[in-house]
Design a protein that fits this description.
The protein is mostly helical. It is about 55% helix and about 5% strand.
Amino acid sequence: MFLGPVFLHCDGQFGTYHQLFSHLSGLMADNAPTTEMRLSESIITGSDEEKALVKALKLAFPNSKHLFCMLHCKDNVRHHLTKMGVAQDLREKLLTLLFGIGGATSAGDEKTLEDQLAEVMQKVRMSNLDVTDYLQEKVFPKITSNCKLMWQEKWLGQQMWSNNNCESINHVLKVAIDWKPQRVRALVDHIRDIVRLQYNDVKRALCGQGEFQLTPLFAKHYVPFVKWSGGTDERREQLFRAFMSDSGVRRNDNTVTSSDGLLTVQGNNKVAQKSKQTQRPRGHRSGRKQM
């Protein structure tokens, strides 16, 4: 769980969301590392089923792919089935087939997914439930879209995706303010304190302390605790900035990264030579004058 940029809003309107995402899209397009890695094209977004939010994301990042939180989807399906008067035992069976362990949301291939969705529809028809259109138009497309994206992007894993991290940090914020409304300035102060604590957790991970640890991709940033504790505040901050600026992209070993970590270019071990030059420039800067 890590709290990065924080967006405070009160209306949940499409225009508000679109203004934020368009601003982020512009920043990414104007940044050399993100342009080189084509993040604006390969970005994957995730959210609940809020229509205004999903629409704004798609418009701001037209080439992006989207994941729907299956926990929110599950709650929405439960609410709809309850409203339609579906008995609790049948309702829970359908939810298990869709969202349970080994359910449709964690199907490993297209055939398995089709079989599981067909089993759900069979139970619906046998029970004469008037939810066929709702499932086929509102639920199945989201589950299918999520599964296909997880099959394409193996790093997402095979379990159903949810925005649990967002829900967790929401809980942390609510505990911090004792579940009471706050003035904007006081709320911002609480959020700033939480962010500082999380940055401290990251710093502790750099020297092998705390409850987090560096993943193998970023293990090169590890600093022995003795060296970390004996260094100056300026040096510790320099090491931390180097870690935070590391994008994690490892195309090959023949790359050169700027000291601020903002730009990585292809390296070249050869010394620059003029056309038809056979001697090394550095080793032969001068020669004996011919008489």
